[in-house]
Amino acid sequence: MLPYWLLIACATSQKTESVGGEDTSETVEASDTIDTMLNPVEQLVRVSMALRGIRPSGSDLDHIQTDPSALRAFAEDYVQTPEFGRTVRDMYAETLLTRRLGGALPAVGDLEGFTRLQREQGLSEEPLALIERVVMEDMPFTEIVTADWTVLDETAATIWADHTYDFDLGGEQEVEWLDQRPAAGVLTTNSMLIRWDSNQSNVNRGRANMVSDFFLCESFAGRDIPIDPTVDLSDPEIVADAIQDNPQCVACHQAMDPIGAHFWGHRPELTPFQITQAETAGDCDNLIKPCYPIKMYSASYEDYWDTLELRGPGYYGAESQDMETLGAHIASDPQFAQCQAKRFAGYLTQRDVDVIPFEEGVALQSLFEESDFDAKALAVAIVTSPAFLTRSAVDQERQDALPGIQVIRPEQLDRTIEALTDFQFIVSVEGSLFGDTPMLMNDTIGMRAMGGGVDGLRVTRPTHSPTPNRLMVLRTVAEEAAAQVVTKDLAVSSADRVLLTKWSGTDETAVRAQLVDLHLRILGESVTAESSQIDASYDLWLAALAASDDDQAAALTTVVTAFLQSPDVLYY
Amino acid sequence: MSHKKPTRRGVLQSLGGLGGLGLLGGVSIPAFALPPGRRMIVVRAMGGWDVTHCMDPRLSTSVGGRLAVEGPDVNEANPGDEQIVSYEGLDIMTNVAKRPSVDLFFSEHAKATVVINGISVGSIAHDECRVRILTGTRATTNPDLGLVVSLDGAATFAVPYLDLTGGAFLGGYAAYASQLGNNNQIKALLDRTIPLNGAAGSGVTYPGFLPNPGQSDAIEAFMKDRASRIEAQGWGGDVSAKRIADLQTADDRRQQLMAEGQTFSESLEFGRAPTLSRQCALAVEMLEQGLCHSVAIEDSSSWDSHNDISDQHDHFERLFDALNTMVADLEAADLFEDTLIVVLSEMTRTPVRNQDGGKDHWPSTSALLIGGFLDGARALGGTDTALSPYGVDLGTGLVDTSAPPLQYNQFIAGVLNTAGAQPEEWLPGVEVLRGIVD
User: Fold this and answer.
1) Which chain A residue lies closest to B192 (C-alpha atoms)?
2) Which of these, A135, A468, A525, B351, is most buried using a 10 Å CB contact count?
């Protein structure tokens, strides 16, 4: 069997589907495989959704039909867009879990007046914004663990002390820390340090596991822990000796503790209760009683591992001094390259990292390293690989390796709907401190996890299948978006419309022309006005008109509602 | 159950081939047309309970001059209040001053309760232990016990598995489950007439569009047509077949939920997370209405007492107060005889305290099984003087020091067997813990 990834280097004869009476098939060099590929329109939709979370524009869809070879060029354009940056953020939100349910610090002191949403985002987006900036500014991806800067918004800049944020400018800014913390990209973002905190008895082992799991795909916590009854757990000195000398303990601790030892200079944990107490009492010492802006680093604690008689900093047997050298070790570790490459592949093709075949992981690692860690190139290679663009394969082993039909994520649905209709499903709860909440990008009062996403706390893996809740979310969003876009579009001329750009009246020819456009832009289907697909949609229009007592706007809203929640939107 | 059942894999494979029928013309194929077993309520006390405070009772003891276990009597003003009481032969740690609901519960329901002690989970990481104690496996991609039990007879229920925790493991069966949302967001999905505001200053209000019956019918017909076209596209492989088949399953569930879920939606308050007591009441209501077959609920307070072990008093009191009410409600609804309540936590805590007066993680746990059909007032398994799990005879559930300790997967297999599910289908090769009902 050809490894999945080597398929990108092989020419196979491809049978493409004919759609709408138009023959879009093309043949390349013949071989003994006859796999069924997606047609050019379907390919472009899939690539665009995977990279950007939005459908291709009408002009892009027209172009690909005349020039199917432009697919890769389109992919290379798509990774230059802001939407790809948001995809990168969403991707690492699923890994780092900083977009956490309940992740907000109290609105007291300097943070008074900030909404819940602002506080959640201020605490969650820092590492995601850092990674996005690394990718979108074409830095080597290793920068995510070596960067000596971070990205803060105004809320985060209010929470944290010791940085170069310019409050006069506002917005998200690239900043430097002024507290002399050794820099290691996302590992030294305050957001990660709070999300992955450490109580006194944990002594940064949870953080060590975070490093090994997220950046090397090798979790310490997944190992079995045998109980050794001879170890007196009531005596800290005996425990400290055991993790140095007892073989059952040493197996994990010899690698885990030296990684954890890098984190001592950073505040171990921070609770809302601490802050509220300190702010209320006005008795702030920024150690046990933190007030805004909060200090997160102190060099005087860097060697606290020594005080506790724990192992000093190290990296799997190699010497290390501080977070900067830790980041450098990770960046140069081949495991990092393979792990992150697999994370990209897993996210973009909706497969669990653990099921990505070994050969594919190695191939992706090579590609990533040889490109000097070009994340955009990696993403393009993944989504333009024949395996991702294949609907079915004749060879059973290759068939089993196909990612298969994809299901729209809530974040993608949010962007798709907004791009098609200029509507984002935002709710404002009267009298609350939530603020304007985008319902597909939030879990406190939003519907992200219900729509198949993660909430960073209880739901830590996405769901890639239709569920009752997901369908209800899709229906709700479709109805609201349809109501808004039809009302707005019918109030302006066709040149100013967002979705119904072809609408010119209710005679059949005109309606069919509009439906053809909606099929292309929403359903990702290129069909002619006389096709069976348009017949079915025209039937929808007639039924909607009858059910709406001939109210054109209501009928159009019904039609658009149906299109926006169609299985063609759910899947790609 | 004695009848031979099809394997899940076989059903899924047949689904893939018959999916075309399922998505055309409104015909839906029930994926699991098997008689349902016992209902199940999974009560999760996540964070790590200290079993010495209740079901694995220990007073503080030293062995060989070394502190072996610190029980709930340690550092208490009135240590004599901690008593190991025998309820019909079942020993439980009680403190009528600090945990009166525990005493009340076992006084009333010891005979309907089986305790399982000394379940090895093999890890001290919360996330790892959680997946192991809920799924019986190490993979988050496998369904948890509440979902497995709900799949038999799934076609009968609007939502076979109702997850009130938001953190159930659904595996590949998410189409058979529904969640409320952390602040009852499902209410806004089920009842689209609830008025909501758009962004401040936008002038947008919701709902903007509520299809009338004729409009809904038109939309449904269009959706069915599009679904059939996707089915006809010929996506290959198990992944695609499952995802496409799930659309029909999920849509059937959605329609049933929207038709039958109004009653329970009315009892939810949008924007307010249900307390443990409210979750218990909801669970009984939903089972009584026949909306679901199993429910997962969770005490959202953290049992993770690293800093002060005396927190466990309040946790156990709150838990058993809720259990008392829930059992009473089940009895009143005539459901207690056919319902299995599984109360568990992903781990217990170290036998002795740390330097902060709390306890850290310990790679074993206990569980409570409660049900009117149980021959209770018994404890299976056990732990030694240092809280290490004893070996267990899996044929009887009794302690056998010559045998290996009870493992989490064997425990889950035993629970599935008790509930009437087929453990060998979900945990192949795992020996079942007997002695609960057989």
Assistant:
1) A476
2) A468
